[in-house]
Amino acid sequence: MSVARTILLKISDNQWLRANGTKVPFVRRAVSKFMPGESFDDMLIAAKATAAEGVQAVFTRLGENVKDLAEAEAVATHYLEGIDRIKALNLACEPSIKLTQLGLDIDRELAFGHLRALAARAQAAGTYLWIDMEQSSYVDVTLDLTRRLKQEFPAVGVCLQAYLFRTRQDLEDVTSRGIGVRLVKGAYNEPPDVAFPKKSDVDANYLALAQVMLGAGARAAGARAVFGTHDLDLIKAIRDHAQGIGLKPAEYEFHMLYGIQKPAQLRLVQEGAAVRVLIAYGEYWFPWYMRRLAERPANVWFVAKSLFG
Ligand SMILES: Cc1cc2nc3c(=O)[nH]c(=O)nc-3n(C[C@H](O)[C@H](O)[C@H](O)COP(=O)(O)OP(=O)(O)OC[C@H]3O[C@@H](n4cnc5c(N)ncnc54)[C@H](O)[C@@H]3O)c2cc1C
User: Fold this and answer.
1) How much distance in Å is there from the Cα of 296 to the middle of ligand 1?
2) Mind giving me the DSSP string for 205-274?
3) Which residues are annotated as catalytic?
4) How far is the CA of 42 from the centre of ligand 1 (A)?
5) Does the structure show a pLDDT above 60 at 309?
6) What are the tens digits of pLDDT across the range 212-221?
7) How much is the CA Rg of the chain, to the nearest whole Å?
């Protein structure tokens, strides 16, 4: 892992900066590259604009490690209302949530209660529900709760991270149950006993896992195959593999983050691929934004430019 990435990921975990980083004006200006705004309405404007270009959306309100029952409740209420508003607008925009934002650190069953309520509302609205993956210490509980949820609600999917050694096994289990998977490389600072330290190994594992997701077993179980990546070489390799085994482009999807690789998103749509963009919004964006900088330390240049307006 590069030194810059390690430093940026350490900054993302710093409690003081998490609380105060969003108040720094030039950092606020720089984040607008990745975030249309802090409100749900800002997200909606962006989702409508991308839908007009053939790119549907996934929405997520930024926040994690909520330590207060009332706050977890408020987050759940926000998503319930958001799902209703999306349905009223007839917009194909799917929610994606973090379990620690629903109070997982306080009480697992409380978080599951909120999750069930969201899944029920998503089902009533005819939409899918995505569950994000956080640090490796949360993988077991996230997968346990996802499996429980799937017993009641068919349209749920979870994010899995290709940098973790364990993911191959998790992927086989999850896809065999028909749970959708959004495969990503992984955004957190993980120790070398749980995650591949070398990027080239993560990339190779990603492609191997992608092939499992596109395999007959996962498809027979009905597991939705989503590739959350901006890596254009990897996207090409996945598309070549899918074509080679006779899959149509509509049988799998690519999801990217708002503001990243937009020309590639549009090109993929023109080529018949199914593409969505994940639009993040909200006031608690500091740790999330530091992870975006860590993915591409050259992005720090945008922050530097914002310092001068
Ligand atoms: C839809 C979606 C959902 C995600 N959900 C999760 C989650 O739940 N849990 C989790 O751990 N991670 C999540 N991630 C983040 C993910 O783990 C990676 O950190 C991130 O996608 C960067 O990896 P990459 O696959 O794009 O490949 P990389 O090899 O990092 O990047 C490939 C190329 O994409 C471009 N690029 C990548 N990132 C950036 C950036 N920040 N700014 C500008 N250009 C960039 C660059 O050109 C780079 O060369 C999600 C990512 C996406 C797209």
Assistant:
1) 9
2) HHHHHHHHHTSHHHHHTT--EEEE---HHHHHHHHHHHHHTT--GGGSEEEEETTSSHHHHHHHHHTT-E
3) 132, 182
4) 22
5) no
6) 999 999 999 9
7) 18
Residue 192, both tokens: 């070398």
- What phi, psi does 179 have (nearest 5°)? -80, 135
Closest ligand 1 atom to the C-alpha of 58? 1
255 lines ligand 1 (CB under 6 A): yes
DSSP string, 164-200: BTTHHHHHHHHHHTT-EEEEE---S---TTTB-SSHH
What is the reported pTM?
0.94
Residues 6+ apart with CB under 8 A from 83: 95, 118, 121, 122, 125, 127
* Ligand 1 pocket residue status of 260, Cβ below 6 Å: yes
User: Which pLDDT tens digit goes with each residue over 56-110?
Assistant: 999 999 999 999 999 999 999 999 999 999 999 999 999 999 999 999 999 999 9
pLDDT tens digits, residue range 102-130?
999 999 999 999 999 999 999 999 999 99
Other Cβ atoms within 10 Å of 140 Cβ, number: 11
Among protein residues, the one with the nearest Cα to ligand 1's atom 51 is 228
